[in-house]
Write a structure and sequence with these properties.
Strand 4 and strand 5 form a beta hairpin. Helices cover about 40% and strands about 10% of the residues. The chain is built from nine helices and five strands; from the N terminus they run αααααααβββαββα. The chain is globular, with a radius of gyration of 18 Å. It is α+β, with helices and mostly antiparallel strands. The protein has a five-stranded antiparallel sheet with strand order 2-1-3-5-4, with helices on one face.
Length: about 200
């Protein structure tokens, strides 16, 4: 079963459900995959920090190089590096498409951007890593709005609640980033200080 469901296996390895479909599988088997998954072993500090970094990467569906670049930018910001890192990742276009409720998962959000269904300030952007600034507006392209996933998104079905840094109009398939996200508002599971310690070692 797990071989045909890689995201379920990754969810169990990281200890967090990465998609809505993974939730039920994760609840049934909330331990790592493999024959030794149920065993509790003493973990090194390195392994704990590594897993936390992998958790953050998986929730944003980014490569290691992208993660390192985001961390490098965060170290140049004032304030806490971990919070700056989360704010940087949360400003990605694919992440904000997900938070706006225009996609069901981060994987679907990335696909929508790559396939040029998403506009920023009226212009098509096909880079999921594109960073938005406060005041930028996300919309779904006119021709794409008749697609079934966007018809569902327009009903608000993908997001019961939107984060306070987004002004979302589901029926118009439009969202505006009003300000820089604060860590406490970002709906991800992560101890960002452990991620900072991992890259600072």
């Amino acid at each position: 079963m797990n071989r045909s469901r890689p995201k379920v296996r990754l969810s169990r390895a990281l200890g967090i459900p990465l998609t809505p479909k993974c939730v039920s599988y994760f609840e049934r088997r909330p331990y790592p995959p493999g024959v030794h998954g149920r065993r509790r072993k003493q973990e090194s500090d390195y392994k704990v920090r590594l897993r936390e970094k992998q958790r953050l990467r998986a929730q944003y569906n980014i490569r290691e190089a992208q993660m390192r670049n985001a961390f490098a930018r965060a170290t140049k910001q004032t304030g806490k590096t971990g919070e700056a890192l989360i704010a940087d990742l949360e400003s990605r276009l694919d992440a904000l498409v997900l938070r706006s409720g225009f996609a069901r998962t981060i994987y679907q959000a990335r696909q929508f951007v790559v396939h040029r269904h998403v506009l920023v300030n009226g212009r098509r952007v096909d880079r999921p890593s594109y960073r938005l600034r406060p005041g930028d507006v996300i919309t779904i392209a006119e021709r794409s709005r008749e697609m079934a996933p966007f018809q569902v998104a327009a009903t608000g079905a993908y997001a019961e609640q939107h984060p306070p840094y987004l002004d979302v109009r589901p029926e118009a398939l439009a969202a505006r980033l009003t300000r820089v996200p604060e860590r406490s508002e970002v709906p991800i599971i992560c101890d960002e200080q452990l991620v900072v310690e991992y890259y600072s070692r």
